[in-house]
Amino acid sequence: MPAPAPSLRLGPRLGTVTVLVLGALAWTGPTRADVPVGVEAVVGSVTCDAEDGSVPVTLTAGAAATDFELYLDGEPYGDEAVAVPGGTSTTITVAGLADGGHAFDVVLPGDPGADPGSDPGSDPESDPENLVSTTREVACDAAPVGAYTNPKGSVEVFCGNEAVVTATNEPIGGNTADLQPVTFTLSFQPWATDADGVGLPLDVPPTPIDTFTLDSSTPAYERVLGETEMGELAALSPTGMINLLVGDEVVSQSGLGGTCVVEAATPDATSGVALPATGA
């Protein structure tokens, strides 16, 4: 399909709210007075091309040419907005989708030259209009033959005082009967820094944090290690690795000991930051 005509550069999509839509139904956003008549976006159903999914997104302009922004999983799909001539429709096929849930958002860009109206406090820029917020579930991977496992996981440490651990052992291609249980181990391995500044694990046994088993009836796990638990680990060693393992194989790991630096605004007479008293 030919590339759509460019009109606007896109940036990250923030604050997207997605609504789960099951089956092959397509949903368009509510009709609003500030959305031109005839303008709509329809997110179609999933089709499989080998083991990748694809989803058609149909954009329809009203009487006038209309720019649309398409976001996939919160990120712009393509570098530019899609310009659709008045009275016509364009279908974009979003292809190469991996198994799992994917969020689709179609937005009418805001108009930086819009009339602010009579409200003296209004911004001269109009806000973008969200036409569609929905998700599609892709399940295109071929079902394995015979017994199998599918362990995945992640460990993320935030500012050294919180860690989020997730793990899954999910069926592939709907084959729940042959999915075998997987036992995960979550542990902390203290590290030390040598004379060259290289971090090395200490020759001590890891400290167990949790052990859990995932199967077709319980395929997912999530745990947040809060400030108290992270403080207990730091008391054992200020540096080290939080490891998520299956047997001796590391599924994911993240280091303890990172810090966050917050830069304060420089105080001045116009910054809004309180200036120190001078006694003057």
Write up this protein.
There is one protein chain. This protein has 2 domains: 40-138, Immunoglobulin-like; 151-256, Sandwich (Immunoglobulin-like), CATH 2.60.40. 4% of the residues lie in helices and 41% in strands. It has one helix at 227-236; strands at 40-43, 47-49, 52-60, 66-72, 75-76, 82-84, 89-97, 100-108, 129-138, 151-158, 162-169, 182-193, 199-201, 207-214, 220-225, 240-246, 249-256. Strands 4, 5, 6, 8 and 9 form a 5-stranded antiparallel sheet that branches. Strands 12, 13, 14, 16 and 17 form a 5-stranded antiparallel sheet that branches. Strands 1, 2, 3 and 7 form a 4-stranded antiparallel sheet that branches. The protein is elongated, with a radius of gyration of 26 Å. The N and C termini lie far apart (70 Å). Residues 1-33, 113-125 and 268-280 have low confidence and may be disordered.
Highest-level CATH class of the largest domain: Mainly Beta
Largest sheet: 5 strands, antiparallel
N-C termini distance? 70 Å
Provide the CATH architecture of the largest domain: Sandwich
Secondary structure tally: strands: 17
The shape is elongated
Which structural class do you get from the secondary structure elements? mainly beta
- How many helix segments? 1
